[in-house]
Amino acid sequence: MFCFQCEQTLGGKGCTRHGICGKSPEVAGLQDLLIHMLRGIGFYGQKALEKGQKMDDDTNKFVMDAIFSTLTNVNFDPERFVNYIKKAVEVKAYLKELAGEIEGTVPAAADYIPPMTKEEMLEEAKKFGVMADTGLNEDIRSLRELLTYGMKGMGAYGHHAHILGMMDDRVSHFFYKGLAATIDNSLTVEDLVQLNMEFGQVNFKCIELLDNANTSIYGHPVPTEVLITKKKGPFIIVSGHDLKDLKQLLEQTEGKGINIYTHGEMLPTHAYPELKKHPHLVGNFGGAWQDQQKEFDGLPGAILMTTNCLQKPRDSYKDRIFTSSIVGFPEVAHIQEADGVKDFTPIIKKALELGGWQEDEPEKKILVGFGHNTVLGVADKVIDAVKRGAIKHFFLIGGCDGTKPGRNYYTDFAERAPEDTIILTLACGKFRFNKKEFGTIEGLPRLLDMGQCNDAYSAIKVALALAEAFECSVNELPLSLILSWYEQKAVSILLTLLSLGVKNIHLGPSLPAFVSPNVLQVLVDNFNVTPISNVDADMSAILGEA
Ligand code: FS2
Ligand code: SF4
After folding, report:
1. What is the pLDDT of residue 405?
2. Which residues contact 97 (CB under 8 A, 6 or more apart)?
3. Quick one: which of 10, 148, 224, 300 could link to 271 by a disulfide (CB 3.0–4.6 Å)?
4. Can you say which residues are annotated as belonging to the binding site for [4Fe-4S] cluster?
5. Calpha distance 100→77 (Å, rounded)
């Protein structure tokens, strides 16, 4: 196997024997084969679109879901990938027919048909790994992978928007164009740089769609205190990013004496009016994803993983963790769906059987709910405070958490931020410092959580609105982006920020292994993307104290 798509990759180079994330060589091979099939689907899908054919919704949905399934920490179940590959054969045949006669060269990948057993698929997969084409120019490979990983992130965002009934052709059609480009040998480095920027724009549209979907169905997040301590009684912990799963579970547990806790990236969901109105959505449990194995160990409650980040469940809780939707792990119970409705009966039974915590803990709470609607609702006050010098700077400390010790940088950075600065948080990186006390500036909390990684649109919208109010560009605002990346949604957001012309991003904890030296130089030269160094030096440089 070879995989270097996430920040955790072995030695900063690539996982070759077994994924650090727990991905087996078997799953890695099947994912390689699935991606190879998707590239061929991209070719025929793009040709069909160029001929003005209409793409059906199921096909678009399949492409998004299949690419999402290969994102880090989503699905570890080989059988699910075998099924995706079989389905991909049907989808490609359909698109080939739709595309009709092709003029010009047809890449070999487009007409490739895989064998139908898992064993044969694994043998075949060896031909299609990231490094299989040893003669490929490293910058071309780097840009193709950058685009592929960006699309994995957009697959996740698109999936979430789609299940809430929102989709846009510009988004769903880009997958065909982007995937086709990764097997088009006529494209130069410049073409692929341009295409990555085009992708960034399309992904901006996608995260806007997702924001519209979430806020139109569940309301705009409002500042909300969330209990972070245990309450007596049976409980279910809901992790991942899926608001629809949480809503359905809340409805199905109504009046059953079960408390619902969010975990990880589900923390910001407490702020949505249509979710918080359920009194048994009682609090948030635990920290970021990488702590789950020790936090779930022997837990007297049930756990639902709605999306990433899933880690290999320990035996102590394997019988009480459930997956749904795109997520999977061998021998872990999967919640089935019919006509958009999931039946959570097995997880409800399990929670009641386990009985839950025996006692209440002394209460502690934290504050969430500073999406774009709330922040822009006090924009006048914020702008006035900036003009008077009461607020000197904003730091968006956004992105993923992970296991590496170097990630303490982000905690240290938040703690070192001067008292006249505001810290905006986004995604799961915040768990390292969101329970600390940061105080207020003129009544405004200094730490404002803008939501999940899926809410990146909020941060961009606020930045664009502030730039308009101050009549300057985003790059001239007293705002610095201190980003931590782990998986491929972060790649898609980075490309969106670059495509919007955002410069001076501080990126860490390490740079992506799949970015070649020349491609990195393009990012540095054009956007001044800067690797994080040490907190004092970076803070001084940003605040002009150097
Ligand atoms: Fe965190 Fe993991 Fe949100 Fe990423 S829970 S790193 O895949 O999606 O952010
Ligand atoms: Fe390694 Fe990350 Fe790939 Fe997992 S997703 S195999 S940790 S590079």
Report:
1. 78
2. none
3. 224
4. 3, 6, 15, 21
5. 35
Q: Give residue 444's identity as a one-letter amino acid code.
A: L
What's the pLDDT tens digit per position in 283-324? 999 999 999 999 999 999 999 999 999 999 999 999 999 999
By CB atoms closer than 10 A (0-12, 13-18, 19+), residue 379 is: middle
Q: DSSP assignment, residue 399?
A: E
Map out the domains of the chain with their CATH numbers: 10-217 (1.20.1270.20), 224-354 (3.40.50.2030), 372-543 (3.40.50.2030)
Ligand 1, pocket-test mutation among 5, 149, 266, 289, most atoms within 8 A of CB: 289
Q: In the prediction, which pLDDT does 366 show?
A: 97
Backbone angles phi, psi at 328, to 5 degrees: -165, 150
This complex has an ipTM of 0.98
485-508 pLDDT per residue, tens: 999 999 999 999 999 999 999 999
Q: Which of 532, 481, 515, 531 is nearest to 9 (CA)?
A: 515
Residue pair 449/434 in contact by the 8 Å Cβ criterion: yes
Atom of ligand 1 nearest to the CA of 264: 5
Model confidence pLDDT, tens digit, residues 154-201: 999 999 999 999 999 999 999 999 999 999 999 999 999 999 999 999
Pocket of ligand 1 (CB under 6 A): 73, 264-265, 289, 308-309, 400, 427-428, 452-453, 486-487, 489
Radius of gyration of the chain (CA): 23
Higher-pLDDT residue of 253, 545: 253
Rounded to two decimals, what is the model's pTM? 0.98
Average pLDDT along the chain: 97
365: phi then psi, degrees, rounded to nearest 5? -135, 155
User: CB of 310 within 8 A of CB of 73?
Assistant: yes
Cβ count near 180 (within 10 Å):
23
pLDDT one-digit tens code per residue, 12-67: 999 999 999 999 999 999 999 999 999 999 999 999 999 999 999 999 999 999 99
Do the Cβ atoms of 317 and 324 come closer than 8 Å?
A: no
Residue from 74, 265, 483 whose mutation best tests the ligand 1 pocket (most atoms within 8 A of CB): 265
Q: Using the structure block, give the residue that is written with the tokens 């075998």.
A: 82
pLDDT value at residue 403:
84
d(CA 74, CA 36): 19
- Give me the pLDDT at residue 444, please: 96
Alpha carbon 358 to chain centroid distance? 35
Q: Within 10 Å of residue 468's Cβ, how many Cβ atoms?
A: 10
450: closest CA among 502, 494, 396? 396
CA of 510 to the centre of ligand 1 (A): 16
| CB-based burial label for 11 (10 Å; 0-12, 13-18, 19+) | exposed
